[in-house]
Input
Amino acid sequence: MKVLIATEKPFSKVAVDGIKEVFDAAGYEVAMLEKYTEKSQLLEAVKDADAMIIRSDKVDSEVLDAAQRLKIVVRAGAGYDNIDLQAATAHKVVAMNTPGQNANSVAELVFGLLVYGVRNFFNGTSGTELKDKKLGILAFGNVGRNVARIAKGFGMEVKAYDAYCPAESIELMGVKAAKSQEELFETCDIVSLHIPATPETRQSINYDLVGKMKKGGILVNTARKEVIDEAGLIKLMEERTDLKYLTDIKPDADADFTEKFPGRYFTTPKKMGAQTAEANVNAGIAAANQIVGFIEKGITKFKVN
Ligand code: 3PG
Output
């Protein structure tokens, strides 16, 4: 059994060592493809792989066509919009994710971005505190829940909206439930996005919605760039010079945002949310165990196709 670990953005060494230990114990061979720059390298590497661990690496029908022996691909992380699920199913490849494993890491980064934002990008001027500010969490999954937990430590008022999570479940965690995403944007000082990229959410964070924010509003995105209507957000930030956008996923229009909104726009150069040793270990080892569980026992928990 040969497992390919294909990570354009590599795991930490401690995570790779942990993953290898799991496969060594199972008697599987491991091949590494890290920091690759061309798709052709992935196409070559998957040829003889029976299983594969990926991060945000794209697995489309071309990759699946090349992967003649592939039985399972595990996205070490939460969002699986980088896997063509229909193509995986058509190729009889099981696709899984590892929900929750990197959630704390992403949630902590939200506050790194927020402190940087409210302190005016550390430019020496007086900023504001997070305490007593209203934080709106859009989607109350694993990351959203961790964000709520940490926000309480900052003394923030926390509200959340999730189209798929009942208000009672949100309120059980001591978080106010908003009735709609519009209400979240209207009533909160800061909105943090934790929605997946789906046909339904694509470009849903648009001019009208963000335009509902109060004066001085901050939008923070550690989810996906696809959920933002970039043209709409640019137009809005041109009109509303009080708004800030902080993101961990560089927009396609990064050059425009950078040029037009100095001091109001920040992006990490590369997605950093899950880039901690802990998240790499948690998600990487979970992925390895899920592969062994599937190959040896047919366990399909966390299958997404
Ligand atoms: C996820 O969906 O798990 C996060 O966006 C992390 O993605 P990454 O593994 O590419 O850092």
